[in-house]
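so my prof wants the structure for this chain in the tokens format not the other one, which i didnt know existed until like an hour ago. anyway here's the sequence
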Amino acid sequence: MKSIPSRCFLGEGPLWIAKLGCFFWVDIEKGNLHRFHLASEQLEIRHFPHRLAVVLEGQNGKLILGLDRKLARYDWDTQELEWLVEIESDFPNHRFNDGKVDAKGRIWIGTLALDFAERAGSLYRIDRDLIPQKMLSYLTISNGMAWAEYKKTFYLIDTPTKKIQEFAFDLETGAIEFRRIAVEIPEGLGFPDGMCTDREGMLWVAHYGGSGVYRWNPKSGELLQKIDLPVPHVTSCCFGGENLNVMLITTAQENLSSEDLEKYPQSGDVFLVELEVGGLESFQAGF
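here's what i got, hopefully its the right format
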């Protein structure tokens, strides 16, 4: 295991872009975007005067950023920022949380209230027309997302429920239909946060307050494996590297006292772990 001392207050949303050979991740509360070139180990940071919740791959080498409640197109080289669409403009105390791109290039992105008000958040789907479609309401912390089974199954985490929901997913239309609870997180393992899928269809879930990334079988609900980390608040994970078998894991310093930070000095850093099983590629947004 290797660590990258990024000292994030709330590290989140890791992304691998193969053509750049780079991992990206965000520090939501600081508004920082990190780019780490895996081969050279060069780390670069860009700052935005917003809560930066999401980084996704867009078209023509651009990034799509989720800033507060707005999506923007960002050019890393020129630093040009182009605003695209705003969600929930009538809720100024809301922000984006996790986001992913499906195999058709649609962005799926959730919201939450800054005070984490119960059932205040939603999940949206945004296609090339940039018209947000609300897919789910009454979420508290819309969080990790993943697809499996030839993209016919969609998984979603609403963190405080400590459950991973499974939906039937129609790739052509982008429709989802609730099927069942795939995994229930037992007491004492923290709260499920960000998530990704491996090539065997298993779910790798970062556990906030659970000091690790846990591998769950969504068919049986069984815990298969744990990556132990030297910090309590583990926030998200993604596969990258040439063979998609390097996992980058983000962590957080938030909700830790000064005594906690002395005890867990690597809180907020990012960790790289090489795994036997590989992951799946991420997709480009269609705009």
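also thought this was worth mentioning. The CA atoms of residues 195 and 205 lie 4 Å apart.
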